[in-house]
């Protein structure tokens, strides 16, 4: 049944008790976006490992999210933050929408796909600031 | 035990009405469609669909141009639709009816053509806290352009406007040039006493112009513009069984005659020279280019359909549906309903949230997705009223809205669907 796909218990468990929810006082990278359709709001903050190498090859020491919204947007932000811990920025930059859908293990309807991908947009916005 | 179907006596013959709406035969996720998103757009009866199809298959031609038979027929039907629209809201002279794309465009037309000429630096436009973005953003654009100021009439705890004479006086100043307010709130359902508000404002200062947004009122209750006496009144076709793409601006003839055109082009001109042109008579001055002929004809057919039911009956049916739904919803644990509690004071719109410990416990998008799996279409989100959501202190809300084809049986099915969402979310 569709709702079982959409609202698997494991996803709801993450929504109720999300990992990586929090704030970093002095983040190296951060971004916040609001989905105007539903008012969902996600902020992602990243602290990088200290290193002299070029920024693209630097590692994420810690990534956290904050905000509010529906179960899909919040659980996907939590899972995304989890998946990028310790990764190189250049690898994180390669993440695409399909990777997020695999991560959350669902295929939302067209009207809900924005909920699932909001956190990726926020992450890319944060990474975009690296180049500038 | 033998099941005996007892046919309940209702104001409208919903069983008969439902047969006119082909879409109501659809199944959604294997369940019969329960369409509760009528405040967003209504479904269309075959009478409207056929009227549009007939225009294209029998007498399609441009209007006001040709002298040939088809053009004459199309023009007659298009102008006939204008008369039907005028009569539907008892607007008097149908030359006071301008066809637009929708209610939003009608408001933008007023802001652009009337507002830019009459609202100056330091002037004030008075709105309310319950306006749809369509009756807020055009005024923001205008206010920014001419350095005018926007003010807002607040709402009370039950979602009604604070419009007692003593309070209105606080918001009306010598700088107030326009008051723009909604007739019925698309979020709270509140029916504003627009006739009384207009009387009070005109008593304070008769020069102030008043615009009423009737997008949520005209489809659902008898509206008489000659009784309400606004300067401008707007509504849209697609929420009243008509097609998308056709809306209506009513304005007093003397105001329309003084207004500059909105868009330039064909149809809106009288004489054109290389350097300058003179404008056509109202309302055609405001209808540049080929209009939505099919849309207007569809709107006319929608007005005919609603007239055949009687708008008083439509209102009674919705009042009964709303009272019934409010009663059913009040029995659901942890459910917060927004807006007036008295069905007399509200249209068929109910916004609500599942709330636990003062917090929205199921995001309305999640709730709407789960209701969708039961075939129930509801709106979720901010309903194009972000500032109002802030006043209510919520991120978003779910909304059901009723129309002529909705039944108590459908409302009954809403309750277990909400309970199912609560089970999934372990509430």
Automatic annotation (TrEMBL), chain B:
InterPro entries: Aminotrans_V_dom (IPR000192), Cys_dSase_SufS (IPR010970), PyrdxlP-dep_Trfase (IPR015424), PyrdxlP-dep_Trfase_major (IPR015421), PyrdxlP-dep_Trfase_small (IPR015422)
Domain Aminotransferase class V: 34-414
Domain of life: Bacteria
EC number annotated for this UniProt entry: 2.8.1.7
Cofactor(s) the protein needs: pyridoxal 5'-phosphate
Keyword presence, Transferase: yes
EC top class named in words: transferase
Keywords for this protein: Pyridoxal phosphate, Transferase
Pfam families, per database record: Aminotran_5
Reaction catalysis annotation: (sulfur carrier)-H + L-cysteine = (sulfur carrier)-SH + L-alanine
A molecular function GO annotation: pyridoxal phosphate binding
GO BP annotations listed: cysteine metabolic process
Family per record: Belongs to the class-V pyridoxal-phosphate-dependent aminotransferase family. Csd subfamily.
The protein, known as: cysteine desulfurase
Annotated organism of origin: Candidatus Woykebacteria bacterium RBG_19FT_COMBO_43_10
The organism's taxonomic lineage, starting at the top: Bacteria, Candidatus Woykeibacteriota
